[in-house]
Design a protein that fits this description.
single chain, 8 helices, alpha/beta, 5 strands, globular, about 40% helix, about 200 residues, Rossmann fold
Length: about 200
């Protein structure tokens, strides 16, 4: 099983994170390595929190799942977790990234891995190519900007799947995590965006 870090807005989307981890545990999909509410003292400095996330949680994972709810894009810790997951350091190597859009955010999908169309969307027969930032932002109004940067990056492999595609289909979640894991070393992530300094 792959070790997975789940990045999400704790105050708004804890129920979905719990459901995801419960499904993963019941079906042997992944080992949860993410930060839970209360794991990190909020009174620590931003720098110390970044270090703890990077060195104690992400270090032991190979795939990061980003749960996108209505408030996710505005959270600085989520941005730090995405950046740290994409950064290829000497100790902490870059992870594969999978984005799950939660209900009420978007039903659009974005495929990045070979075979994904057949494994996750077998009934879809026609696919649109999206190339402009404006179109990505229209389709994904709650998506973190750093994720959109990488949907546009030609060498990044980031898939976006709606929650309802995986919530009762654990085999799809398993396949998507494994595909992100396999393609992670070949990802050329775009990290030019400055890390978010505050919540908005």
């Amino acid at each position: 099983m792959h070790k997975v870090f789940v990045s999400y807005h704790h105050a708004s989307d804890q129920g979905y994170k719990n459901a995801l981890v419960r499904m993963a545990s019941q079906h042997g999909i992944f080992i949860d390595r993410s930060v839970s509410t209360g794991d990190i003292n909020d009174s620590l400095s931003d720098q110390k929190i970044r270090e703890l996330i990077r060195d104690h949680y992400l270090r032991d994972s190979t795939v990061t799942i980003v749960l996108v709810g209505r408030s996710t894009a505005r959270r600085k810790h989520v941005d730090w977790e995405i950046y740290s997951s994409m950064f290829d350091g000497k100790i902490n190597k870059k992870s594969g990234i999978l984005v799950i859009n939660l209900p009420g955010t978007s039903t659009s999908c974005y495929v990045s891995h070979e075979g994904e169309e057949e494994r996750v969307y077998p009934e879809v027969t026609q696919w649109d190519a999206v190339t402009s930032r404006a179109e990505f932002e229209r389709r994904y109004p709650y998506m973190p900007a750093r994720i959109i940067d990488n949907l546009m990056a030609p060498d990044a492999k980031v898939s976006v799947v709606p929650w309802d595609r995986i919530c009762d289909r654990p085999e799809r979640l398993h396949w998507l995590i494994h595909a992100a894991f396999q393609d992670r070393a070949r990802c050329g992530y775009d990290l030019r965006r400055t890390m978010r300094r505050r919540n908005s």
